[in-house]
Each structure stands twice: as C-alpha cells, then as structure tokens.
Amino acid sequence: MSSSTNILATMQLAQKYLYQFGSALLIFIGTIGCILNLLVFNQKNLRKSPCSIYFIAHNFANFVFIYFSLVPSTLNLGYGIDISTRHIVICRVRLYITILSNVVSPLYLVFASIDRVLITSPNALTRRRSTRRFACICIIIGTLFWTFLHAPILVFANIIQIGPNAFICYFQSSVYLSFISYTSLFRATSALSLMMICGIWSIKNIRGLQQVRPAASLSATLGSNQHSHSSKDHQLFLILLIDIIIYALFSFAFAFYLIYQQITQNDVKNAERTQLETISSNICQFSGTIPFCISCYANFIISKTFRNEVKKIILC
Which one of 14, 90, 174, 190 is least enclosed by Cβ atoms within 10 Å? Predict the structure, then answer.
C-alpha cells in the first residue's frame, strides 16, 4: 500500500468518525442552543432592541441549516444513508434550503454589526436609524434577494451518477456550478470582512463615547431614551462580538478551500486526488457548521444578561 493510499484511507476513516460522533454532538447541542437563543431574544427585556431581531432571524436560519444540511450530511457521510438521492424533489429542496440558510445566517450577523455601528455612533441622528422597523425591512429585503438569486437551484440541481451505484445530489450545469462557487467565495470573504470592519468601528465608537461621557454626563442623563448606550446594548454588543469571532475562526477553512478550488479548477486530477479534495471539502464544511451550533454557549459565558434570561426561562 502506497503512502498516498494510506493517507486517503486515514482521511476517509477520520471523515466517517467525525460525522458519526462529532456531527451528532453538534446536532444535539445546536438544537438546544438555537431554541434557547430564540427564547432568550424573544424575552420582553431584549426583544425591543433591533439587534435582538437580527439575532432571532440568525438563530432561526441556524436551526434550519442544522436540519437541512448537518443532519443529512451526518446520515450520508457518517452512516452511508443519503436521503438526498432518493427523489429529485428532495434533492433540489434540500440543496436549495441548505445554501439559502447558509447565506442568510451570516447576512443577519452583518446587519446586526451595522446596527451596532449605528447605535454606538456619537451622532444622535445616526443612532435614531437603529429601529425595529428598519431591522425588519433589512431582513425581508435581504432574505428575498437571496431567495430569488438562488431560485435556479430548484432547476439546475440534479441526482448525478458518479460511479457504479454511486449518486450525488449536485449541480449538473457547469456554468451554474461556477456561479455558485464564485458567489460562495465572494460571500464568505465579504461577510467576514464586513463583520470585522463593523466590529472594529463599533469598538472605536464605544471608546470615543467613554472618553466624552464624563463631560457630557448631565446631558446624557437628561437625554436618555431608547437609543442610549445602556447595559443591555453593551451586552448585545458583546454577544455579537463573540458570534463574529466564532464565525471568523471556523469559516476561514472553507473560504481557503474555495480559493484553492478556483485556482485548481482547470487542473487534470486523478481519482485519488479528487477523493482527497472531496474529503477535505467535507471536513472544511464540518468546521463551517460549528458556528451554527455553539453560539448559545458562548453567549452564556460572556453575557450576564443572557445568563439571567436563561435562568428565568429554566425556572419558569
């Protein structure tokens, strides 16, 4: 047995155990985490904030992603049960919802990041733009845009035979596959960039406000309103910041794989290299699913407000 064959066999085994046990654990903690997040951000104390609206949409998208992407991938790669290839309708709907939820989930984090920039602005007029109505409009427009943009998946996705008794649910059109690859690469890099830019901008705004607060304490007291920089807004910013960090840490791997895929798309690849790249892609995608499942527990650690709301829910 050659060294490359040994590497391939080891990676296949690693992929199998990763999806058998790692994915099962992620599904379990992700389900509980998303439900807890939805319950917490729907609490009266938090749901009045526009940022909470984005978090509700974000966690709903995460929940959908877990059951339309992670669960089928676990059954397929961990247990050899591929439900996507059983019927063309299941194939297309599952692939469409998987890609759509994977797109809109970070989109809502980007919107929340922009909201934190608005609410921490030293300009009162800018702060007034952070409203629940504006949040709902952004969510609706953003969701509709990506819903229609990815609608061709319902046409171009197909069940493709790649070998004897081997089928996959994927794109039959090479042109549309290239389009999806390029948009995925653009989305991954732009979402990360926007989140980090807005996060740094918000931190800069907060530091600026802390510097002027002693001189303006009387004015701030008299002019306090729904846009004041309260403890609740600070806690929401911390939650958003940790969500951005988690997303960045675990999404880089797949973003790098997409770059590699575009660079090598015209290379002539043998069967062994193709298998290695497929396994690498699956492992990178597994890494990318982690942020969809663990944000609740990071929120619990970093935010006192979040912990108090969870305790209220559990004790009720």
Answer: 174
Give the chain's mean pLDDT.
84
Radius of gyration, alpha carbons of the chain:
22
Which H or E run includes 157?
Answer: strand 157-163
The single residue listed with the structure tokens 């995608």 is 285
- Partnered with residue 167 across adjacent β-strands are 161
Residue 120 pLDDT: 85
Q: Is the pLDDT of residue 281 over 70?
A: yes
Q: Are 299 and 239 in contact (CB under 8 A)?
A: yes
Helix, strand, coil percent values for the chain (each to nearest 5): 80, 5, 15
- Enumerate the H helices of 165-270 as residue ranges: 174-212, 217-222, 231-263
DSSP secondary-structure letter at 84?
G
- State residue 133's pLDDT score: 93
- Is there a contact between 235 and 187 (Cβ–Cβ < 8 Å)? no
89 φ/ψ angles, rounded to the nearest 5 degrees: -65, -45
Instruction: For residue 303, give the DSSP letter.
Output: -
Q: What is the 3-state secondary structure (H, E, C) of 253-275?
A: HHHHHHHHHHHCCCCCCCHHHHH
In the predicted structure, residue 220 carries a pLDDT above the cut 50: no
Residue 51 has φ and ψ, to the nearest 5°, of -60, -35
The C-alpha atoms of residue 42 and residue 32 are separated, in whole angstroms, by 15
Q: How confident is the model at residue 212 (pLDDT cuts 50, 70, 90)?
A: low
8 Å CB contact between 302 and 239:
yes
Q: Tokens standing for 169?
A: 């649910």
Here the tokens at position 199 are: 């996060």
Categorize the per-residue pLDDT at 223 as very low, low, confident or very high, splitting at 50, 70 and 90.
Answer: very low
pTM of the model: 0.88
Contacts of 114 (CB under 8 A, 6+ apart): 194, 198
> DSSP of 101-126, one letter per residue?
HHHHHHHHHHHHHHHHHHHT-S-HHH
